[in-house]
Amino acid sequence: MEPTADLTLRNGRVVTPHGVVNGGISATGGRITHVGADPLLPRAREDIDVGGKVIFPGVIDPHTHMGVGDGWGEEKLEADFLTESKDAVSGGVTTLVTTSVYGPSPRVPMVQRNIASGEKNSFVDFRITALMVTRDHLDEIADLVALGVRSFKYYWGYNGPQAESFGLSSEGVQTDYFWVACERMRDAHPRAFPMIHAEDPDIRYLLIERWRERDPTGSLVSWAHANPNILEPLQLAQAAWIAEEVGVPLYMVHVSSHEAVQMIREFKAKGWRTVGETLTAFLYWTADEADARGVGSKGKVQPAIKFDEDRTALWRGIADGTITQVGTDHLMYARDEVGGNFWEKRVGLGPGLGTSLPAIVTAGLNRGRITLEQMARVLAENVARQYDLYPTKGVLQPGSDADIVVFDPARGRAAVGEDLHSASKYTIYEDEELFGWPDLVFVRGKLVARAGDIVATEPSGRYVPPA
Ligand SMILES: [Zn+2]
Asked: pLDDT per position in the chain (467 positions), as tens?
């Protein structure tokens, strides 16, 4: 019989919004045409028996930073798109959302240049979050929405030199600034929203100095005490009240504490549109486990990796729909920056795209904390809905882009930073046995990565406009 489809994957377990289907999936012209039992699938030019493995929607990472790390700017962004998008696709991430470049220059031309750079260099599809730092930027919100931007990042949680390093004034984000920002987003588009880093900076700076004196060597446990849980609800409450009063959703990035999970749960129960995102690293590690396994300053992030009670609350939050997004906060820092005095080390998790799916399979699926269907929601569907990519992205169903990952959750191997595609050449999962490494990764029906290798010869990622 003549093949009638471009691609058919058979004999798998397909994770759909309606449950896991035994069978496979077909695609033509980059779009999914069939999901179902094997006999119902058309023969294809590329017809693959996946041997009972999981056929999963391509992961969408809502929180990455191309163009930041060792230096920042448009050249760094271009280089990062090339290397870090390979890391992404080898790890099963087929779409990423990255922040725009820092600094005070006008946002519209910058986002346009960032989009052009991604279209030239990225191996995965992408969206841009506009990083808002000056008062003038607020006047550009409507034009940014017209370019397809839905997410606007505000570096609340910083002041002084740290805020200045992002291009903010030393006061950081002020409440009146945030109020006006919320008004502009509300008026520009019903699905435009602010993303905030919510963590009180003043208490944090005070306690970091205290803990540095108390423990000069430093550890991730001391870092967690120096960046305590209550910093999150302190600032989340303020931001969520303003957003609710003005009438926009409020998206909190990298939720790390059980107190913030509970606060988001309560806000949602009141009908507020509060969105909780956490990081893969917070779902995998606790500070004490990471210290015991020698993660060191590679795990030094704000907010801090916290304790078992917090990790448990984050998994419960995913299970009950309080935490709906999972990202990595991926930054390309070179390995040279790791090591040395803990307190002097810069803050930021470094690379994570290439290990995110295996880390979630290992710590979540394989430990019974999450089902395949829940995993598909937090790693793909919810993110697509939040960023206005749904149903083009985020689900395995006819009509959607054929962004597909095939993996075996029962097969594990140790993570080795040197072997990953990120230019960072390290990982916070070094030597950890992770399961579910992707075997096949398709972006719009095209095989881009196989068993960790990039098989595509050229970047063919696209900027994805709103669905
Ligand atoms: Zn971030």
From this structure: 688 999 999 999 999 989 999 999 999 999 999 999 999 999 999 999 999 999 999 999 999 999 987 777 889 999 999 999 999 999 999 999 999 988 889 999 999 999 999 999 999 999 999 999 999 999 999 999 999 999 999 988 888 888 887 777 888 888 999 999 999 999 999 999 999 999 999 999 999 999 999 999 999 999 999 999 999 999 999 999 999 999 999 999 999 999 999 999 999 999 999 999 999 999 999 999 999 999 999 999 999 999 999 999 999 999 999 999 999 999 998 876 656 789 998 888 899 999 999 999 999 999 999 999 999 999 999 999 999 999 999 999 999 999 999 999 999 999 999 999 999 999 999 999 999 999 999 999 999 999 999 999 999 999 999 88
> In angstroms, what is the span from residue 343 Cα to ligand 1's centroid?
20
Task: Kindly state the tokens that stand for 304.
Answer: 């801090």
Q: Ligand 1 centroid to 43 CA: how many Å? A: 43
Q: Tell whether 168 is covered by a domain.
A: yes
**Environment of ion ligand 1 (residues, CB < 5 A):** 329
CA of 327 to the centre of ligand 1 (A): 9
Output the six-digit token pair for 249: 């959703």
Cα(375) to centroid(ligand 1), Å: 21
CATH number, domain with residue 227: 3.20.20.140
Find the CATH number of the domain harbouring 46: 2.30.40.10
Report the number of distinct structural domains present in the chain. 2
The alpha carbon of 89 and the centre of ligand 1 are apart by a number of angstroms equal to 19
Kindly write down the DSSP assignment for every residue of 224-245, as one continuous string.
HHHS-TTHHHHHHHHHHHHHHH
Asked whether the beta carbons of 398 and 34 are under 8 A apart, the reply is yes
Query: Could you say which DSSP state residue 303 is in?
Result: S
DSSP label of 296: G
Does residue 378 sit in the same domain as residue 266?
Answer: yes
Q: Domain check: are 259 and 298 in the same one?
A: yes
Q: Determine the straight-line distance between the first and last CA of the chain, rounded to whole angstroms.
A: 36
Would you say residue 465 lies in a domain?
Answer: no
* C-alpha closest to that of 354 among 428, 282, 303: 428
Report how far ligand 1's centroid is from the alpha carbon of 162 (Å).
14
For residue 281, report the distance from its CA to the centre of ligand 1, in Å: 13
pTM of the model: 0.97
392 assigned to some structural domain: no
**Dist. CA 303 → ligand 1 center (Å):** 10
Q: What are phi and psi of 184, to 5 degrees?
A: -65, -40
